[in-house]
UniProtKB/TrEMBL annotation:
Tagged with keyword Transport: no
Protein name (Swiss-Prot/TrEMBL): Acetoacetyl-CoA reductase
Alphabetized UniProt keyword annotations: Oxidoreductase
Oxidoreductase in keyword set: yes
Length: 246
């Protein structure tokens, strides 16, 4: 029977490559999408020629605690257990802090950080009981170094790293590893939305002088999910072309 992975934000810029990488590695992927995006999710599923056995589309509002609790309890009954959880869903609401609204702050904290509780909590006990499971949190170079215009996003992404270390300590005795991946600037619609002159100045600072390709982030996920990574936990793996070395 296939191992099962749940990927949040699965049809997004990086999520789509993560899903593809895990399917290619033999996983059945539970691909979550924001509930009002069903038509687009089906389109994505068909464009990628996935079979029902490879990918199950699963509506999930990662900001809604009780929705996640109920939906993920039902999922566990239907699927048995989840071997790999990839907390990937994330948004930006960039603004200088002076101009940042409470809504911009809260939307980013809810989607990027509170989602970790909402999605991981309903699955964690079952993962501990089955053992040999993986939780992989997609944070960001900007959670490590801080970024002008991203006080909300940098706070959430740094919070993900603290969560990763704390949960790694709790999961270790049950064989549940918890790690983070910190992508640098990656060629996705999120990064393409940055003003071109700002993006050019960011690119100029990257020692490799290019953006990451989404599949380069997905490769790190597949590695951390694999048996080869069984003894790595609490770690943050940077995939950033040398932009920040910590
Ligand atoms: N450091 C210091 N000063 C900076 C700066 C920086 N990095 N960036 C801009 N400034 C300065 C500008 O030079 C400008 O100064 P002057 O007023 O003296 O000209 C001032 O700050 C205002 O800058 P903007 O003109 O850019 O202000 P804005 O209000 O039009 O835009 C912003 C603000 C939306 C935050 C814009 O600066 C921006 O998009 N910055 C990039 C944010 C970013 O990197 N986002 C990443 C998104 S992708 C992602 O998040 C994925 C991931 O994980 C990596």
């Amino acid at each position: 029977m296939n191992k099962k992975a749940l990927v949040t934000g699965a049809k997004g810029g990086i999520g789509s490559s993560i899903t593809k990488g895990l399917v290619e590695a033999g996983y059945r992927v539970i691909a979550t999408y924001f509930p009002n995006g069903e038509a687009k999710a089906k389109e994505w599923f068909e464009e990628n020629n996935y079979s029902e056995n490879q990918v199950r589309l699963f509506p999930l509002d990662v900001t809604d605690t009780s929705f996640c609790k109920e939906a993920l309890a039902t999922l566990l009954q239907e699927e048995g257990n989840i071997d790999v959880l990839v907390n990937n869903a994330g948004i930006t609401r960039d603004s200088t802090f002076k101009r940042m609204s409470a809504a911009q702050w809260n939307e980013v904290i809810n989607t990027n950080l509170n989602s970790l509780f909402n999605v991981t909590h309903p699955l964690f006990d079952s993962m501990c009981q089955h053992g040999n499971a993986r939780i992989i949190n997609i944070t960001s170079v900007n959670g490590l170094k801080g970024q002008f215009g991203q006080a909300n996003y940098s706070a959430a992404k740094a919070g993900m790293i603290g969560f990763t270390k704390a949960l790694a300590a709790e999961g270790a005795r049950s064989g549940v590893t918890v790690n983070a991946i910190a992508p640098g600037y990656t060629g996705t619609p999120m990064v393409e939305a940055i003003k071109s002159e700002v993006l050019d100045s960011i690119k100029a600072e990257i020692p490799m002088k290019r953006l990451a390709m989404p599949q380069e982030i997905a490769g790190a996920v597949t590695f951390l999910a694999s048996d080869a990574a069984a003894y790595i936990t609490g770690e943050t793996l940077s995939v950033n072309g040398g932009l920040y070395m910590n």
